[in-house]
Amino acid sequence: MAMRPEERAEIAREILRRHLRPGQTIMQGASALKRLEGDRRIGTLIEARLFLKALVDLGEVECTWVDRQGPIGLVTLKLAPPPMSAAEAEWRARVSDLLNTRADVRPGDEAALGDLWPKLADWPSWCADDLIADLYDFRTRLEAGEYTGKSAYLFSASGRLASSKLLSLLPKPALMAFGIDTTLLSDPPPYVIVAGPSEPQAVVLVENPEAFEMAVAATTDLPVAWVSTYGFGIAHVDGAGARMAAAVTSLVAPIPLVRAGSPPPLDQLLAHPRLFHWGDLDLAGLLIFRSMQVARPQLRLSALYQPMIALLQSGGGHPYVEATGKPKQDRWTSDDPLISELLTVCATRAVDQELVGVAAIRTLALEEF
Predict the structure, then answer these.
(1) 191 - beta bridge partners?
(2) Bridge partners of 163?
(3) Contact (Cβ atoms closer than 8 angstroms) between residue 283 and residue 246
(4) Does the pTM exceed 0.85?
(5) Which of 12, 161, 176, 339 has its CA 20 to 30 A from that of 214?
C-alpha cells in the first residue's frame, strides 16, 4: 500500500530533526536529501525527493524545487514541533507553579523557561526551584553589570547550584528570551601548548593532541615548532580543532604552555612566514583551516596532508557517521582551487590526522602542501 503524504512528512520531519544542530533552520538541499536517503525507511534518492516534497507541500520546507531533481541550493526549515511528551508537560507545569510564587516575573518568562526543556529531560523535580532561583539571580546580576566581561564559567558557578557549565549548556535562545545574554560573559582563557626550538624554520598548528605529542617526540632534532590546544584538558579532545581556531582568532591573547624545547613567544610563532596547519582531512577540518586563514593570511596547509590524501584516493578512509564522531558534517564550497579540490577528495570519506606516522612526520614537517 502506498504511503500517504502525511506519513511521508512525519518520517521526513523526524529524520531531519535528528540531524539538525540546535537553532539550525537552513541547510543545503543536497544534504537534506542525503539525510533522508540514508534512512532505511527511505533508501533511494527518488524516494527521498518524495519525502522532502511532502514537507514542501506542507510549507515546512521552503526552497526552489525542480521536478525530477528536487531542491536547488539552500532550503529553509520550518518543521512543526514534535508532540509534547508527558515529561515536558510536567516540567512546564512545574515552571508555572514556581513562577506563581515570585514577584519578579516578567511577560514571556514562563514560555522562555519552559523552552529550556530540551536540556532538562533528566533534571530532578526536587531541584527545579533551585534552577529557577539561580536563573532569576543571574538575570538580575547581569542586568546590574556585575559580571559583564567576566568568565561564563565563574559566573555560572556562583549560584547555589554551583555549576560552571550550566549557562553554556542550556539552550541559548531560551536563555536570551528570558533575559540572560551569555554573550556578555567571556569564554575561559584559551590555552595553547607549544614546543620546538628557539629559531624554527616552520611552525605547524596541530588540531589533535595525540598527533601533537607524536610530532613533538619525532622531531626533537628538526627546526620545526608545534602549536596545539587541549581546551578542557588532556582527557577531553572532542572539538579540538574548533578550539584551536578559537585560540588563533581570539581577541583574548591565548596563554602558551611550553611542552618541550625553547620556542619563541606565541605571537612570534603565529606571525611566522612559514605557518602551516595540520588537522583531520574532513569537511569540518577544512572549514576550520579557512576560518583560521582569515585571521592569519600567511597560513597554509602542511605537507603532512599528503599521506591522508593518498589513503582517500586509494579508497580508504571512514564515512561521516556517528561511530566515527562525524555525523553532521555538511558539504560546503570554496572559491580556493586547492580547498575545492580537497573538499571533493573528502566529500564522502574522511581521514584522521593520527594516521600519519613518525617517518612521514619527519619527512614532511617542514614542507608546505
Answers:
(1) 255
(2) none
(3) no
(4) no
(5) 339
